[in-house]
Amino acid sequence: MTDDLLELAGRSYRSRLLTGTGKYRDFDETIAATEAAGAEIVTVAIRRTNIGQDKDQPNLLDYLPPDRFTILPNTAGCFTAKDALRTCRLARELLDGQALVKLEVLADQETLFPDITATLEAAEILVKEDFQVMVYTNDDPVIAKRLEELGCVSVMPLAAPIGSGLGIRNPYNILTIVENASVPIIVDAGVGTASDASIAMELGCDGVLMNTAIAGARDPVLMASAMRKAVEAGREAFRAGRIPRKRFASASSPLDGTFF
Amino acid sequence: MEIILNGEPLRVKDGLTAAGLVASLDLSGRRYAMEINGELLPKSMHEEHELIPGDRIEIVHAVGGG
Questions:
Q1: Which stretches in chain A have pLDDT values below 50?
Q2: Which residues of A lie closer than 8 Å to B, measured between beta carbons?
Q3: ipTM of this model?
Q4: Nearest CB partner across the interface for B62, out of A51, A77, A94
Q5: In this complex, is the C-beta atom of B21 within 8 Å of any C-beta atom belonging to chain A?
Q6: pTM of the model as a whole
Q7: Which of A14, A17, A48, B45 is the most buried (most CB within 10 A)?
Q8: Active-site residue among A55, A82, A102, A229?
Q9: What is the pLDDT of residues A149-199, one digit of tens each?
Q10: What ranges make up the beta strands (E) of chain A?
Q11: Which 8-state DSSP code applies to residue A114?
Q12: For chain B, what is the radius of gyration of the CA atoms?
């Protein structure tokens, strides 16, 4: 089989499943699930250091070393463009100058839908500051294109609200976003189970990012494995080209040579 | 003098540098980033940057997140 790599911000990845690192029981479960998922890109949040904590207490990046994983700092929890910019600048410093960030600016606590005007504003500034911006957005094809035109390296439409597990609510919009795009489209948020990830990939998305669907499963490591297979299966099905849907049957066996 | 570190008031000696603060917190050599009054302070400036009273300092690191 020929290599089918995800080309993202100048690097190539075998895995098209990106995973979050939140909501796990402990770091051991985080790394076990990350490995079962086969993820090469993992998101992290940027938060205050616990002052006075034990110096020997393990750090997330000890478990997920940046020389083995692409660490994708995320502006999760930011509700203003200003806070997202601060977070990205701190993240770049934290990761020794790495420019790759995931931008999300949220609008309200209940839906966690993106604040699109603030997202556009922050994306424009970040691109000017030479960040490589992967941007979380809604499933609006017009906005997705606008974000690409601003210079984002990947556009990441939601399937459904963050953590909802509702799956792809608007496959036709996701399809339109994919068809219009010349940067990787990675479905971010809302996946609930393996079939949701497959559907995203069958629509032609370049990857899927998820956290809760794995970390919140009864058995996160097993779900991580299921998601890896689902993403791979969906990708292969997309590349293979599915048959068209038809209203009536089409026999699988030859009609010639029947003896009955 | 008093500064605000990660949202909490903290008494430190006058003229303390950013690097001095980091050392006093036992964070030297660890992976962190710092901003002062909302602006990033690059590591290359920690040695020379002197804190002033009322500075609001954030020291952050990476944690699990989506």
A1: none
A2: 20-24, 30, 43-49, 51-52, 55, 59-61, 71, 73-74, 76-77, 86, 89-91, 93-95, 162-163, 189, 211-212
A3: 0.96
A4: A94
A5: no
A6: 0.94
A7: A17
A8: A102
A9: 999 999 999 999 998 999 999 999 999 999 999 999 999 999 999 999 999
A10: 6-8, 11-13, 17-19, 41-48, 70-74, 100-103, 132-137, 154-157, 186-188, 207-210
A11: B
A12: 12
Q: Cα torsion for A244, A245, A249, A255, to the nearest 10°?
A: 0
Cβ of B66 under 8 Å from any chain A Cβ? yes
What is the tens place of the pLDDT at every residue in B31-60?
999 999 999 999 999 999 999 999 999 999
Where do we find the tokens 């992967």?
A134
Note whether A212 and A175 are within 8 A (CB).
no
Q: Is the CA virtual torsion B56, B27, A21, A173 positive or negative?
A: positive
Q: Which amino acid is at B61?
A: H
Mutate to test the interface with B, among A41, A69, A89, A90 (most CBs of B within 10 A): A90
Give me the residue label for tokens 């990205």: A88
Cα A221 to Cα B17: distance, rounded to the nearest angstrom = 45
Q: Which residues of chain A are within 8 Å of residue B7 when distances are taken between CB atoms? A: 48
Q: Does residue A102 carry a catalytic annotation?
A: yes
